[in-house]
Amino acid sequence: MTIWPPRREALRRPAYRSLADTVIRAVSAGELKSGDRMPTHRDLAYELGVSVQTVSRAYDELTRAGVLVGEVGRGTFVRAGPTETRMPYVTDRQFGSIIDLSLLKPVLAPLHEEAMRKALVDVAGSLPMTTIASFRPNVALRAYAEPALDWLSLCGVQASPARLVLTNGNTAAMTATLLTVAGPGDLIVAEELGHHTLKPLTSYLGLRLRGLPLDEEGITPEGFDRVCAREPVKAIHMLPTGLAPKPVTMSSERREALVAVARKHDVLIIENDAWGPVHPDRPPTVASLAPERTFYFTSLTKCIMPGLRFGCLVVPDTFASAAANRHLVTNWMATPMIAEIATRWIADGTARRLLEWQKAALGERNAAAAGVLAGLPFQSSPNGMHVWLPLPPEWSEEGFLAHARLHGVAVAPGSSFCLTEPGRHAGVRLCLGGEPADRLELGLQIVARLIRSRPEPALLAI
To answer: I need a labelling partner for 295 at 20 to 30 A (CA). Which of 12, 118, 171, 417 fits?
Structure first.
């Protein structure tokens, strides 16, 4: 017997709640899919013999829960249509007191606000004129290169100023890198479960993107080699140090094996190291193993403070001018005021102090998550900012997301990160940094309780 459309005699009182529950079950069963258009309020009300207000109230509840989305002039749709890549995080806070485990960010505390207030006072008293007056990146940013190189050395990367492009974070660096390494129609390969912005970005740039098979360390050299043997590959994008949705860290041997394949087929390497030195006992960076072909980028945004959008892109010598030009036409230059604060913090030790605090805070949160999720097959890293939790076969991603949202928790679906067929990596990413510790623990408890339960109709709160 189908769930959707419902039979009028199957609705219980209150009818709006029963109708909303039916939609949830239809989504969980796959009878309603992402992008499906829902009947108008009036048409569904007539079909079911209920008032238009009943349908409107059910749709409103489902919209607040993130199951449906209304588009002015077009109608109401099951959330996340197929024409655009779905972002893994909640795009606004319209859901009130929702516990947000969908957005990847570091832990913040009053000491971060205090550090920024002090920095703004200090900058006000000794602001370089070039910070506010220069349009030329080589003039405005020249003084920031050496502190940036000091931070890179902490990440395990040695570079010269000629190979360095200062950016407004990792997204700007990724964009400039892709524009430098490839042109329309070229093939980029990456983890089949990888960075959520890579798929839309390559699409917008006219690049082809293909996912590579993974094992317990990430990309397999054999899978990489097979693709390169079949057709030319311009570059491989990798997340080797805990940043991927499944937060694995490649061993030194795995990194060396992937570099060997890249050299064999003359493939450029893009090393995304957004967390920088947060990860303990880091193996050598890929950039240190193959500086002649690796584009490496990191920033202070994830490991220090979200508002500190200051990053470093290190490129091979032969691509230095090209990368600088691509960054110039897409971003012009890193914002000098932010660069001023970031490099002062690197020079005076504030950045290092906040880094050590962050590592300790993330260590505590990972330990707490391990306690709540004990017995479940989750994956994590010691100081990582998220946990990966695979879904059992009886749960669909859409169904689990909807149930979690109705219980007050937002999580990131695995499909947002997947470059292969839907359902291949069914799971959710649970971010540990964005909520206070007590709300994080409550959110994890709700997720753990749901995933241990069989899918059942979700009752919407009045």
So the answer is: 417
Residues 303, 110: contact at Cβ < 8 Å?
Answer: no
Nearest to 151 by CA among 348, 359, 358: 348
Q: Which helix (H) or strand (E) holds 268?
A: strand 268-272
> Pairing between strand 99-100 and 409-410?
parallel
| Single-letter amino acid, residue 64 | R
Pairing of strands 218-219, 164-167: unpaired
Cβ atoms of 408 and 446 within 8 Å: the answer is yes
pTM for this structure?
Answer: 0.81
* CA proximity to 386, closest of 192, 101, 63: 101
The distance from CA 64 to its chain's CA centroid, rounded to whole angstroms, is 23
Query: How does DSSP classify residue 159?
Result: -
Q: From CA 123, how far away is CA 100, in angstroms rounded?
A: 34
Give the whole-angstrom CA distance, residue 225 versus residue 260.
Answer: 10
Report whether the peptide linkage leading into residue 14 is cis, meaning its omega lies within 30 degrees of zero.
yes
Question: pLDDT tens-digit profile of 86-101?
Answer: 566 555 444 447 899 9
pLDDT of residue 125: 92
Asked if 188 and 234 count as a contact pair (C-beta separation under 8 A), the reply is: yes
Query: Looking at the DSSP assignment, which residues form a beta bridge with residue 28?
Result: none
Q: Which residues contact 462 (CB under 8 A, 6 or more apart)?
A: 14, 17
34-52 burial, b at 16+ Cβ within 10 Å, e below that, comes to beeebbebeebbeebebee
Residue 68, classed as helix, strand or coil, is strand
- Three-state DSSP state, 52: helix
Helix, strand, or coil here: 393? coil
**What is the four-CA torsion angle of 365, 367, 370, 372, rounded to 10 degrees?**
-70
Q: Are 94 and 64 in contact (CB under 8 A)?
A: yes
Specify the pairing of strand 218-219 against strand 214-215.
antiparallel
Pairing of strands 187-191, 208-212: parallel
* Percent of the chain's residues with pLDDT above 90: 70
Strands (E), 3-149: 68-71, 75-78, 99-100
CA distance 156 to 278: 12
The per-residue pLDDT for range 197-254, each reduced to its tens digit, is: 999 999 999 999 999 999 999 999 999 999 999 999 999 999 999 999 999 999 999 9
